[in-house]
């Protein structure tokens, strides 16, 4: 398989990943629907990274933010963008799509973010109107009802309170928990990407309000582990019943970082002719992919890196190595949509 074909296949999977998440949030796009947890801020970042491969994604981002932008955490998005910009291989045009989008939505809300970008508007983007097309979004009521995170943010406000409750509702109801996720400060900080002090304060508030109680089976540990208070009035409405809910809580920001690594790999392989160097860099990517799968809490049967399967890289054919990497990335799509 040529490198051109290899990266074409990876780009198709990246685009499918973005669409399955947008489909879950009410945008009528191609492909399947995300059945795992949602993360609007990570999806905004993911769309800015892969949107250049399907410009309809940029349109979906603009339309959705035009209606539901008030349910997106500005501070959390800023934290994501800051971490992405700190990546050593981040391209200067990484967030052009996002910059163009913010130029056509409520500028007052996004000013603290848009000021970070250069004013670089594509000709096509500058000619678009900011008004959203309702034909491409489901009914407002349906979107809110079918997305617990948005529902909770509407109920409790956009911030750590709603997201902690959302995390708890998913972890509590998912059938399998291979990564042993808990409702505790360390796990919440890692999976929700809020700072530790914010998580700690919110957990204390929820405990005092009787929304969460300390798990008696986990006492004696270094950190408190919580459970939803099932005696609380309205507990089922807040935490759900587990039926038709998200199958697992995953870290979508880790998936966005994986897509950035794909973009970086393509840049690093341009003009490289020596097969040994190409294979070495692809092998490094496979190792990074495996680590990010673990970070995202995505449980794949064949998630091990290429180096774990092929200790002697010199004996591995290029097609075999490429197929292994495509299988890793494609496995993410299969996992979140099956």
Overview features:
17 helices, 338 residues, Arc Repressor Mutant, subunit A, mainly alpha
3D structure, described in words:
α2 runs parallel beside α14 and α14 packs antiparallel against α15. This protein starts with a helix and ends with a helix. The protein is built from 17 helices and two strands. The protein has 338 residues and is an all-alpha fold. About 5% of the residues have low confidence. It folds into three domains: 141 residues, no CATH class; 95 residues, Winged helix-like DNA-binding domain superfamily/Winged helix DNA-binding domain (Arc Repressor Mutant, subunit A); 86 residues. Strands 1-2 form a two-stranded antiparallel ribbon.
Along the chain, the helix and strand elements come as HHHHHHHHHHHHEEHHHHH
User: How would you describe the shape?
Assistant: globular
Strand proportion, as a percent range, falls in under 5%
Distance between the termini: 28 Å
Per DSSP, the total helix count is 17
Q: What average pLDDT do the residues reach?
A: 87
Number of strands: 2
Largest beta sheet: strand ordering: 1-2
**Roughly how many Å is the radius of gyration?**
21 Å
Count of separate structural domains = 3
The major sheet is characterized as: 2 strands, antiparallel
